[in-house]
Amino acid sequence: MYLILFVFLFQPPIIPISLIYILGPFVLMLILRYNNKTVGNILYKSKILWLSHFLLILAFYLVLINSLDILIVGDKGILLARLRSFNQLLLLPGIQFILITYLLIIYEKNNYSLFDVVRLLMLAGCVQGLCAIVAFLVPPVRSLFLAMGPETLYTNEWYLERRGYGFSSVLIDTFGFGMGLIAGYIVLYDWRKKIRKIYVVLSLLLILFSIAVNSRTGILVFVIALLIRLLYDRNIFKVLIKLTILTALSGIIISFAQKIAEVGVKSENYTIAWISIAFSQIMDLFSSDGATVDEMVFISEFVDFPHNFFEFLFGSGHWIYDTGKELGFRSDIGWFNLFWEFGVLGTVILITGMICFMIRPFFLSIDDQLRRICLFNTISYLIVLIKAILLGYNPGSFVIYYFTFCSYYLIWKQKETNIKYIN
Q: Could you tell me if 89 and 15 are in contact, meaning their C-beta atoms sit under 8 angstroms apart?
């Protein structure tokens, strides 16, 4: 089962076109073989139906805004960017919902619990971790893994010198987001008496290796999980004690980590140097100096808000990820793409809806493991939007959808059957 999840999650590049467009119709045909009532129950109780309706409403909003923007501002010669926005908002999430529905049908048949939901994610992450190690140690295998990937990225000399070790259609920031979430789940879940600690530790190390050689975003996401694990407690007094101890030790930890990073930066291996630089920048975020000058310059290069009131408030109906030629600028920062696409009003609606979707299981459940992970998902999603576009398909968004849909369904099963599924 974990290999199926691996394919759904990472969409390994085994054919020249995106695998997700092949998997969607194929898995849909498999779902149609099952009882309509069972499938309908899963769609409703897991909130897949709710989120689908929410995205559909946003799509109608986009149609309206696109029409008005072309009439008021002009078409700008970016028809493809406008069409890709609908692909990112409706088609790609829709296919992911189909894949997760199929997984939930199998989980229902096998009476899976929260333990199984997290365990299968961990195993899928371990397979990716093994792929990363093999690709790192055996260059021909790495070339084979990248052969069917996007040419614009996997023929980039700078990229190939530093990262790109794994078997996934995405090996950049959103890959790190997904793997960082899986690593975070391992830390936040209580494995006592379920899996031997040595297997959990080895799994975590495999996943962290894959993060380190591919995407520094995953390191930051993992740090968020560590902080939640340390500070999450229903007893406020205990939280204050932990916070005091952590603050006292943070200076020593950061200083020690920066010394290690300084050694790594001088390495002749481009990947090790790149990892060390990323590690040093993350440490800078927690130091008294705050963000580095390089980070501030990087952000400023991508900032360009709409210049007229209509687009600022309601959006232009298109993203700006690939509009460098047409508009003279582009951005891969999630927040700026949302502002351009939906405006302030649409962005508030979208983000509010996503926050409610991700955090609601926190209030519906009394299980601290599930509650910690829901809190982790919500915080990580909002922070990663600073760096990446999360609409459409990517490993990070898939993990968020997967875990949240499973959470809703397990909570419902627990209430309906009086059986303790969440353990």
A: no
